[in-house]
């Protein structure tokens, strides 16, 4: 699908293959805050791979704190020189790139609001032409896998060989327990399309709060992501940005201690055999599901014909209410989640209506496939 994989350097982020930890404050606020966070992290999180800090902050509304800008760069240099921690910061335009390179920053990252804009990504790629620096690319704010891949392709074309992707969730309309919905299938798809690009998770921006951080981190590891980026602040409640989601280095230590690092494979023969057996059963059940679904849709078409002949409307709301209610009761009795069951039946119902619609429209001389 993409030209990226074969020229990238897959192990640059984690030469030993162990999941990496990237931490540091959302924003660099002062020299003291930066040094305090870095020293505390080094003490509590010896496996820290990169120290992160926002120097320029993309804020939704003006008059919020927009980062300290170039003034913060020497503070980060101090962290690097005095504590030996490699530094990563976000860049959003060519000027940021120039200043970051001058300051000896080790790794750059593109934020979600930059990845979404091909003009900005291209500007950064052009500024990086001929520069050998690793770049991490956060997913765009909207759930568009191609835009994410496209940003990495632009950088790769400029000669960047050490790329990584950061999954930070996707902006959605409406209420959610997450600040940015993880939509796990998208990073999984990315991993399938670009298996050699390390993929790490940013639970802080997915959660937007502290309570869900541990669960989202575990989920990322279980999906074989290569690491996590967690915003860390010495006094989270008084942080100048993203207060609710930042944690102290001590809390990060606890989260890391509780994570289970599962292996991808096990040498146990009985384990492999059992897994194989379960997978066969799942394959079988899925093919039955598809067969049943096809049969169900055939019946929907027949209902469509019946209603057409009787000139009855497609949607009978009372029947639908009753139907979904009974199905949800049964599903919950069998241990299926309510949201899952509801969404599944809504989807099935929608397809049914579409099919009945196609039957009706045919009678009027055009087919459902007509572009009009
Ligand atoms: C950040 O990492 O501080 C940040 C601004 O993230 P995102 O681009 O994911 O919103
Ligand atoms: Mn942040």
Question: Can you give keywords for this protein?
Answer:
372 residues, alpha/beta, TIM Barrel, Chorismate Mutase Domain, subunit A, 2 domains, 8-stranded parallel beta sheet, 13 helices, disordered C terminus, binds phosphoenolpyruvate, binds manganese (II) ion
Distance between the termini: 32 Å
Give the rounded overall mean pLDDT.
Answer: 91
The CATH topology of the largest domain: TIM Barrel
Q: What is the CATH architecture term of the largest domain?
A: Alpha-Beta Barrel
At the fourth CATH level, what is the homologous superfamily of the largest domain?
A: Aldolase class I
Please give the largest β-sheet.
Answer: 8 strands, parallel
CATH class bucket of the largest domain: Alpha Beta
Oligomer: single chain
The total number of structural domains is: 2
Chain-wise SSE layout:
Elements: E1 20-24, H1 31-44, E2 48-52, H2 73-83, E3 87-90, H3 94-102, E4 107-110, H4 112-115, H5 118-127, E5 135-138, H6 145-157, E6 163-167, H7 185-193, E7 199-201, H8 203-207, H9 213-222, E8 227-231, H10 249-258, H11 269-310, H12 317-333, H13 338-363
Parallel strand pairs: 1-2, 1-8, 2-3, 3-4, 4-5, 5-6, 6-7
Bound molecules: phosphoenolpyruvate and manganese (II) ion (MN).
Protein described:
With 372 residues, the protein is an alpha/beta fold. It folds into two domains: 4-258, TIM Barrel; 269-364, Chorismate mutase (Chorismate Mutase Domain, subunit A, Up-down Bundle), CATH 1.20.59. Helix content is 48%, strand content 9%. It is built from 13 helices and eight strands. It has helices at residues 31-44, 73-83, 94-102, 112-115, 118-127, 145-157, 185-193, 203-207, 213-222, 249-258, 269-310, 317-333, 338-363; strands at residues 20-24, 48-52, 87-90, 107-110, 135-138, 163-167, 199-201, 227-231. An eight-stranded parallel sheet has the order 7-6-5-4-3-2-1-8. Strand 3, helix 3 (94-102) and strand 4 form a beta-alpha-beta unit. Helix 1 (31-44) packs parallel to helix 10. It is elongated. The two termini are 32 Å apart. Bound molecules: phosphoenolpyruvate (PEP) and manganese (II) ion.
